[in-house]
Write a structure and sequence with these properties.
single chain, about 280 residues, alpha/beta, 7-stranded parallel beta sheet, two-stranded parallel sheet
Length: about 280
């Protein structure tokens, strides 16, 4: 039976993907530092072998909260090829080819594309809707606080990312060499997001457009590495400049159903915001 290794198996898309594959006849092995089927730590190569044992396809989620990781990913892919992995679906990021050179998005994509022994699919999602329901962009005193200058973003549901990833892993040949830019069907302002959250939660929700550098300084003060400012500046800068993601239709192209609208997502997560107000 085909076996897929799901890196980031306890994460937002990985946890959904593992369950979806199991329901469709593929053995899914969730991997993470803790709480998954198998332990996997990018900084501990000794964990690679057990994670890859018997695997023929991989959902590759690169190391998080760092800029340089291409060498680690290359070493993992070398091991994966050697043990018989024949397809990798890479979770990248929207416009990865336009990322600053200090971030290894493009380098990892190029490495994967250049490998003759592995087919690949590359997923480039926009900002994930779940950011508004977890610690990434929580409500602070009833407000979303983030820099945007009124720019728009076609926020995507992590469930849609998982659904697309599932199709690429279920039928690698049909998606070999493909790059999909995954978005929602609407390009929204942060104010429109705040208004929608207010509607579904029944509580006032404001949006405060903060200075970009002030926001980055605040994020770094929570304990992020200082060099991660490059990532935060690029991600927010795309929205501020008007170069945020725009609807692509790739979710529907791959899955056969429309991408999730933000209102639908917000309805599913309304309990998060109502609990915060209690």
């Amino acid at each position: 039976m085909p076996t897929a290794l799901i890196l980031g198996g306890t994460g937002r898309s990985g946890s959904l993907l593992a369950g979806g594959l199991a329901q469709r006849g593929i053995t899914a092995r969730a991997a993470a530092r803790s709480g998954a089927d198998v332990r996997f730590d990018w900084d501990d190569p000794a964990t690679y072998a057990d994670a890859l044992a018997g695997v023929d396809r991989v959902y590759l989620v690169t190391p998080t909260i760092r800029l340089r990781y291409a060498d680690q990913v290359a070493a993992f892919l070398d091991r994966a090829e050697a043990v018989g992995v024949r397809h990798v679906t890479l979770l990248s990021v929207y416009n990865a080819d336009q990322a600053p050179a200090e971030i290894d998005f493009a380098a990892v994509e190029a490495d994967l594309v250049a490998r003759d022994g592995i087919t690949h699919s590359i997923l480039r999602p926009a900002w994930v809707m779940q950011n508004f329901a977890d610690e990434h962009l929580p409500l602070i005193d009833g407000a979303i606080i983030a820099p945007s200058s009124g720019g728009r973003e076609a926020f995507v549901d992590a469930a849609d990312i998982a659904a697309v990833a599932a199709e690429t892993l279920l039928d690698p040949a049909a998606h070999a060499g493909a790059t999909y830019s995954l978005t929602g069907p609407q390009a929204l302002t942060f104010q429109e997001v705040a208004d929608t959250i207010a509607l579904v939660s029944g509580r006032p929700v404001a949006y405060h457009d903060i200075d970009q550098e002030a926001w980055i300084s605040g994020a770094l003060a929570t304990g992020l590495p200082a060099d991660y400012a490059v990532m935060l500046r690029w991600l927010t800068g795309a929205v501020i400049s008007g170069n945020g993601s725009t609807p692509t239709g790739d979710v529907e192209k791959v899955t056969g159903r429309p991408a999730t609208i933000f209102r639908e997502f917000a309805g599913r997560y309304a309990h998060v915001w109502t609990a915060e107000a209690a």
